[in-house]
Amino acid sequence: MAQEYEIFYTFCESSIRCGEVAVDLRGYFKPGEIKRWEEIYGRDPERRKFRKLINGRSVVVSIIGYRRVGKSVFAYAYGEVESLNPIPLKVHSGWDADKVFDKLNKKIESIYGSKTEGWNVGGGVSLGISGSASKSTSTTKAPDIDEVCKEKCYIILDEVQRLKSEDLREVVNDFYKRFESTATIVLTGSSVYKIRNLGIARKIDWFTLYPFDEMKAREFIEKGFKQNGMLLDADDISTIYHGVGGTPGLIIDVAKLVILRNYDIEDAVEHVYEDFVSGDGESIIQDLDEIINQHPTVDKKRFVEFLLDRRTNEFDRNERELLEDLKIFGVVKGGIVDDPCLRRILSKWGGVE
């Protein structure tokens, strides 16, 4: 079982609810989508590949991957560590193209605008005798998006699947027209793989994030728990990996329950997996259905059986094309699915449980 190693306490900071013992997670398990690169584990190979893909060019890139694999975190941390001054914007339901540009300008204002405060002090105040003081504020006007992007900018549009196809086309085409030599636009979101087929004038490159393989997942679990004051033995690490696989978001969810809410590890794994299957897992299955619908001649059950049995060499041409699409989507890497959680999701999808 897990051995308590060290407890960290920080009082009255942003990472704690004052008056309570529980603190937010730290290090690799730190919550939120805006992290420094040193808070990201195991993505240096992906960083090198992403840098090579961008390679100083103005590009539109989709970071593809299934839910909870870490697309948004990777996109921002990459921009931060490469000193690209990332401008992140999460799209909300109901937005159109005009709303995106309006929100981007407001985001730029919050990043690049500056406000200074000072006090106009009446005579004698500094001497401790009767006087008066009044507060004054001066604000430096922030540049708009055209000014920021005229040289170089790195914009992250997250959850772009919430935009209608025509609005997404307008946003990307407008960016390309105005900033074709300076702007790198990163598109992320659970269904961002679909934008390859929207007929957008600008070529969109794609970059897939996969879950950690078993070795990296085990290291991530071990090091992340240690950063948060717990040493896990090999059995604990195996329980977590075989329960939720190498998906970073699911591992962090387990850690939240174990570290912050004192769950038993087995109970935490079961709780996180059940929540995933009934929530994001169902969304992944819907995405898989949309993908296979592009391959109407493929028998889903046969495909999944052969995939999980490592018999992809027996696939026909249509099955191989579907396999390539699933690689892009991120649930298959190199024709093999070893991740325990993904294997169960695929089994459920294919009806081979």
TrEMBL record:
PANTHER family recorded: ATPASE DOMAIN-CONTAINING PROTEIN (PTHR34301:SF8), DNA-BINDING PROTEIN-RELATED (PTHR34301)
Database matches in Pfam families: ATPase_2
Transmembrane segments: none
InterPro entries (UniProt xref): ATPase_dom (IPR011579), P-loop_NTPase (IPR027417)
Protein name: AAA family ATPase
Record-annotated ATPase domain positions: 150-254
GO MF terms held by the record: ATP binding
